[in-house]
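Support case: user asked for a sample of complex input and structure output to validate their parser. Sending the pair below.
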Amino acid sequence: MTQAPIISFKGVNKIYSNGTVGLKDISFDIPRGQFLVVVGLSGAGKSTLLRTINRMHEITSGEITIEEEPINDYKGQSLRLLRRKIGMIFQGFNLINRSSVERNVLSGRVSYYPTWKTLCGLFSKADREMAVRSLQRVNLADKLYTRADELSGGQQQRVAIARTLMQDPKIILADEPVASLDPLTTATVMDTLQRLNREDGITVIVNLHSVALARKYADRIIGLRAGQLVYDQPIAAVTEADLNKIYAEGAEA
Amino acid sequence: MTYPEIPRRSWVQRWHVKGIGGTVVLLVLLVASSQMTGVDVGMFFSNFGQFMNLLVRMSHPAWDYTTVIIQPLLETIQMAILGTTIGAAFAIPFAVLSASNLIHSRLLRNVTRLFLDLVRTLPDLLLAAIFVAIFGIGSTAGVVTLAIFSFGMVSKLFYEVIETIDMGPLEALESVGASKVTIIWYAVLPQILNQFISYFLYTLEINVRASTVLGYLGAGGIGVFLQRSLNEFNYSQTAVIILATLVVVLVIDGISNHLRRVLL
């Protein structure tokens, strides 16, 4: 591989203040443009791993570099600029329910403006058009002025993706994005993420519970158990038995 | 035959120690405090006749007095609106600083809360007396008193509302790279606005009633007339003032209910 990885973990440990081990000696690289799926049982550290990438969780030791820059010491403005290029999708969508879809989508753009302009809602015409285009990409442009809580779960998750697109992200982190959706809307959301990965070259990292989904969408699958990296294979080398083992052995412990 | 093994409850659970103990303690405290303060419940009933007598004398409202009190009643409403608005506006930043889910510094939070406790401790009558001395007799003293009184009350109600919000949208805005103030504006405010309005109107209602009392100290409004009628034992006028105040409170309550229905 000639190109430098976009994200790199070097001996990362995370111990929570109550002594629980979140991550244990994690080291691996994520090349630019990869669709990476993280599997593992609940509590294995998948969410923690994801949130260390945009520093929503702090690590205890080790180093994470993004585009070859160590991010551990980012503060204030530099931290906000880091987060700007990393979109995040949540299991619970995390939309502002009482606000319109437009306002939710535009809120993905606020880091491009000084605070006072965001308070007055002074978004440029170009960005308002960008909001419509983002919604078009998730097929929801007609819902622009609908209140977010009037949408179905699948629609809300797509609004959340549109919000992320407003960041113009290089990386998208998705934390169990389909865990509260039915199979049909699951496919829509996963397809959308795949399209962004292929068409825009955005590096996508998704936490999933479903082995079948992982095999369908991933370029590469990594497995976590009790905070440790126990599995790491490109999709061509992944077998059903391997994946079942990640879950089965965890269940025994 | 075999019985399924049922886990044994501890004796604390089995004899409902917490529930029974709590009730006993409460009763003991009630009896003890009524004895120590010398409250005579019997007196309430033996002197009930005087109360009825007062009610009878108030039962012939002097309706022609209504025209006299409309102007001071309007002044009372204006004072209440001004005082509540000023108090609530100042309460918002303090409520944010007191909310444990927004401010992680325990020191800052506790200092703010201590200050708010202090403000709430000051009785509104004391405040009115002070501000009448400073600003002289008139509605300015009343407005300032009501503003401080509302500030103390509203800030506590507000921060308790803030502490119940859904943190998901805040996490999302944080992950976007928004500044703290932007996060509050986009993710907190829409979640709390309705309850803020509801509490604001509740405070307004309280202030309309409170300002009738403040009038006693010369802080303007309908209270001045209430005091005059009571001093003159003119209970038919007192009745009109009370009924008029009731109308204002009912109207505010109606607006509040309507807004809550529309906004929710």
